[in-house]
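User: Here's a structure from my thesis project, written as structure tokens. My advisor, Dr. K., wants to see whether a designed sequence matches the one we expressed. Can you design one independently, without my sequence as a hint?
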């Protein structure tokens, strides 16, 4: 039963019973006294029309919604379609961001006043204004259930993450089905551990054999699939955990592997086995993430190559011994074959448990970031890290640790207030959550922050910066929790667990003290974190703590898009080129804005930055970008592409920040299709050694049921047809030999002589053309007569000239020789070609500008300085025609059709391919790689990974629970 507001007390003490303790004094962070945050921004009306690109049908439409003018199209679309309440087309429907934020913030503020959180009405007003400002400016976001439910007539469920419990009885198992279904119905996810259920190798009290937990998973899986297909806004998200010492663990490991074999067989027989296909429902166990919970005893046995005992559930005695390495191998083989099961490390999880006297941590939510007691829930909120990076545009950067800490205090206060008025899906979850008050503050945009500050994701500097921010966040959260305990009391379970809770706080503080420091950016953050942890120990000893848990790192799928984040959770960037929707329709592809920030941080000049960004816009990668030092390539490594981050790089990042996360980290470690079982074993083993709490791997293309778009299927058919035609043509066509004929230039011919310098080397180029203006010969002279370079350039120019006269197109030479890298290289004195990777690179860029038509050289990414400036101003390189009317100009240059803020230097936007509908699809097209992810059930767009879940960039739908 869902509890109502009148069904139970909401806080640690009854509403309105003011004590002698004073409330919180709320400090202003961003707001101005006497000025409402809404009055400080410009508002505009937008039309939100979202379609399914596969069939053109309209999924959602609401016109005239009001948002700040700086909100992106994607953020507006997602917030309007996902979070606005009321039936579309009725007076009850919300029509703007103000209504949405007010619905939430005023509910929180009133509850804070009702439950005596604030020292005065003035503090309550500051709280309201600061919370409003932070949401309005996308500085942080609550998890989706808050946006769905708070301030509405329906039950005010604020938690996204739930952990259930199931015992060894039919009544408990049927309760599991029911409770899980109610949570799915509300759009959230749940996890549980099935290890209390006796194994199929044990007897029932009646004398027969037990069914075992794997058999009961079938019923729960079918229930989840039915609720999903019954019209929920997203797929049911669930986690099933089994302990490694359970006698049925091998059957559990093999469940999805066997089903994958079934999918292959049915697909080969002609059935539609794509994810979402008509026949995929016949396959079992597809609606859950599975994880094996390993303990230190088992991992030590793996390390030593010894046996390990599987224990009866009812008596605890060892009923079977297995080879630990062999079992570990089966776990890795299953993960290699189908990405399941993941792994959870029981020892480190419970070593950091603040409430062991109230029970062990046995399970997690579906995305693996929330880990606490059974029958509890956690509400989440995530901060947008890029909002705290101060950058003067000249390479001088700092992370505003002081403002970051103040926002953490504000958000933690709001999150704790929400538990006072929240509703819960079951009575047990409501009672336990109010007794332990688990919170999950976290962040998004870490990958973007690291790149913008010139740190490679897989580097000591990148890990140190991430760790310092994480430590400051969790330390500040627990500090505020101790301050709240002085005002409204510690959580009910604190007295029983006080010593353990303080021990864990000491563990966090000790880890902070010995953490490495790297550079000017992280040193000040570590100093603030150290001060915060000292306050935690001091205030906690005096007051206790209001919350048994403070932080997790969630996938931040939908809310990350709502905050216009480039990266989700703890993930690196997907790729360097992004897909961007435009106001009024249309789309652009844009080079990630963090790239020029990173280049300035590393000391590159604006001319160099412009050339590097132009290269990325054309090729999608930094390899061979003009003027970019190879040692800086790693800063721009992404999740996909030629220089994708290694699997162990992801694990090292998780290990670096885990000591300052109360819960865990939602993350899937992506591995290439060529990865071996041995490499997966290494990942799982090293993660245990490094102190990671949980992880899962995904080997590209290991899932048979990933859907192919209709376009992909058609391409495969066309490829087969083309190969057949080529074979036939080769068999019947005669071999005809063509010989080129040299066309010599006349005695008198027009020419252009250009003087140039490249990296300090001076030279002259004379380019002569035919009377019809086609280039026919090139003479190159270097200033140092008789040098090897001068001689080679003479010979090279003769070879090129002969080739031109035999009919080799100039564009062929340009495509072959531009971007060729050797010394001398560097700055030039040519305003149209500011950087050159070599003399040859410069020569052919100059020839292209002088002799190739605009369309040809534009396709090669070669433009004049005037054209590049025009692109910054209008969004198009095309020459402006005075006879072109305004309407056609708007169509050819969409950015000019709407008011827009001036774009910073080195931002390059070009029209996105019409067949791309998201960044994942754009990357597939530009880099020729496969974004191994499902298509969105709502809009048909290729999804992308967010933690251990998937998020649709097109409409905000997610396969996760946050």
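Assistant: Designed independently from the structure alone:
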């Amino acid at each position: 039963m869902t509890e109502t507001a009148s069904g139970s007390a909401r806080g640690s003490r009854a509403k309105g019973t003011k004590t002698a303790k004073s409330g919180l004094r709320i400090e202003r962070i961003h707001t101005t006294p006497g000025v409402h945050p809404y009055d400080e921004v410009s508002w505009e009306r937008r039309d939100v029309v979202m379609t399914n690109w596969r069939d053109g049908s309209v999924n959602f439409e609401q016109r005239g919604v009001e948002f700040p003018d700086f909100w992106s199209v994607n953020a507006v679309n997602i917030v309007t379609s996902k979070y606005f309440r009321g039936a579309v087309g009725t007076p009850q429907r919300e029509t703007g961001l103000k209504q949405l934020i007010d619905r939430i913030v005023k509910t929180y503020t009133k509850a804070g006043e009702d439950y005596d959180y604030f020292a005065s009405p003035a503090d309550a007003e500051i709280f309201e204004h600061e919370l409003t400002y932070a949401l309005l400016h996308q500085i942080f976001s609550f998890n989706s259930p808050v946006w769905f439910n708070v301030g509405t007539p329906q039950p005010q469920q604020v938690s996204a993450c739930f952990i259930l419990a199931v015992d060894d009885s039919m009544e408990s198992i049927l309760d599991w089905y029911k409770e899980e279904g109610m949570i799915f119905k509300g759009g959230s996810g749940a996890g549980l551990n099935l290890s209390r259920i006796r194994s199929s190798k044990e007897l029932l009290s009646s004398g027969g054999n037990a069914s075992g937990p794997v058999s009961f998973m079938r019923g729960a899986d079918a229930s989840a699939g039915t609720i999903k297909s019954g019209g929920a806004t997203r797929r049911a998200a669930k986690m099933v955990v089994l302990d490694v010492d359970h006698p049925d663990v091998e059957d559990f490991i093999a469940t999805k592997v066997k089903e994958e074999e079934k999918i292959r067989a049915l697909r080969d027989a002609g059935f539609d086995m794509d994810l979402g296909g008509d026949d995929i429902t016949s396959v079992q166990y597809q609606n859950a993430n599975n994880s094996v919970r390993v303990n230190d005893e088992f991992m030590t046995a793996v390390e030593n190559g010894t046996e390990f005992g599987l224990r009866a559930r009812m008596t605890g005695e060892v009923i079977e011994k297995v080879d630990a390495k062999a079992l570990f191998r089966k776990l890795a083989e299953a993960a290699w074959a189908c990405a399941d099961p993941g792994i959870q490390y029981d020892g480190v999880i419970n070593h950091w448990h603040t409430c062991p006297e109230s029970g062990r941590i046995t399970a997690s939510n579906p995305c693996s970031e929330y880990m606490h007691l059974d029958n509890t829930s956690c509400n989440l909120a995530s901060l947008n890290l890029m909002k705290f990076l101060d950058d003067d545009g000249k390479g001088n950067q700092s992370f505003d640790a002081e403002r970051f800490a103040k926002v953490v205090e504000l958000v933690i206060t709001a999150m704790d207030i929400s538990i006072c008025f929240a509703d819960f899906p079951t009575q047990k979850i409501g009672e336990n959550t109010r007794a332990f008050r688990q919170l999950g503050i976290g962040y998004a945009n870490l990958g973007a922050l690291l790149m913008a500050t010139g740190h490679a994701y897989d580097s000591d500097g990148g890990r140190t910066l991430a760790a310092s921010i994480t430590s400051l966040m969790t330390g500040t959260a627990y500090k505020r929790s101790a301050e709240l305990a002085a005002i409204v009391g510690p959580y009910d379970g604190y007295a029983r667990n006080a010593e353990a809770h303080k021990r864990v706080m000491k563990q966090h503080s000790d880890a902070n003290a010995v953490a490495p420091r790297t550079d000017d950016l992280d040193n000040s953050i570590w100093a603030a974190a150290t001060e915060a942890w000292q306050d935690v120990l001091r205030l906690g000893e005096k007051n206790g703590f209001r919350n048994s848990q403070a932080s997790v790192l969630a996938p931040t799928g939908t809310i990350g898009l709502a905050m216009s984040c480039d990266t989700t959770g703890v993930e690196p960037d997907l790729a360097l080129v992004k897909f961007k929707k435009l106001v009024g329709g249309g789309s652009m592809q844009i080079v990630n804005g963090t790239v020029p920030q990173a280049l300035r941080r590393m000391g590159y000049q604006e001319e160099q930055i412009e050339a590097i960004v132009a290269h990325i816009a054309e090729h999608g990668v930094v390899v061979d970008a003009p003027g970019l030092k190879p040692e800086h390539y790693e800063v721009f490594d992404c999740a996909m592409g030629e220089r994708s981050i290694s699997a162990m790089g992801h694990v090292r990042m998780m290990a670096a920040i885990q000591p300052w996360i109360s819960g865990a980290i939602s993350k899937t470690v992506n591995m290439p299709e060529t990865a071996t079982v041995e490499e997966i074993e290494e990942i799982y083993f090293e993660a245990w050694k490094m102190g990671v709490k949980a992880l899962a791997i995904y080997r590209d293309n290991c899932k048979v049921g990933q859907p192919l778009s209709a376009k992909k299927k058609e391409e495969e058919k066309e490829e087969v047809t083309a190969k057949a035609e080529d074979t036939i043509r080769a068999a019947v066509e005669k071999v005809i030999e063509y010989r080129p004929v040299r066309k010599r230039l006349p005695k008198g011919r027009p020419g252009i002589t250009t003087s140039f310098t490249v990296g300090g080397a001076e030279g002259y180029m004379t380019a002569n053309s035919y009377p019809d203006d086609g280039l026919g010969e090139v003479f190159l002279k270097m200033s140092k007569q008789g040098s090897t370079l001068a001689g080679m350039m003479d010979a090279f120019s003769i070879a090129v000239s002969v080739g031109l006269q035999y009919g080799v197109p100039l564009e062929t030479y340009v495509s072959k020789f531009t971007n060729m890298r050797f010394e001398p290289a560097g700055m030039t004195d040519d305003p149209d070609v500011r950087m050159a990777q070599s003399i040859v690179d410069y020569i052919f860029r100059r020839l292209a500008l002088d002799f190739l038509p605009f369309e040809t050289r534009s396709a090669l990414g070669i433009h004049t300085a005037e054209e590049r400036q025009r692109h910054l101003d209008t969004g198009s390189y095309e020459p402006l025609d005075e006879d072109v009317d305004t309407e056609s100009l708007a169509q050819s240059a969409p950015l000019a059709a709407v008011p827009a803020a001036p774009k910073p230097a080195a931002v390059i936007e070009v029209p996105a391919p019409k067949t791309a509908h998201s960044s994942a699809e754009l990357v597939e097209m530009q880099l020729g790689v496969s974004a191994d992810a499902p298509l969105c059930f709502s809009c048909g767009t290729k999804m992308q990974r967010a933690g251990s879940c998937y998020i649709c960039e097109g409409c905000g739908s997610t396969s996760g629970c946050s």
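When you compare it with your expressed construct, this may help: The two ends are 22 Å apart (CA to CA).
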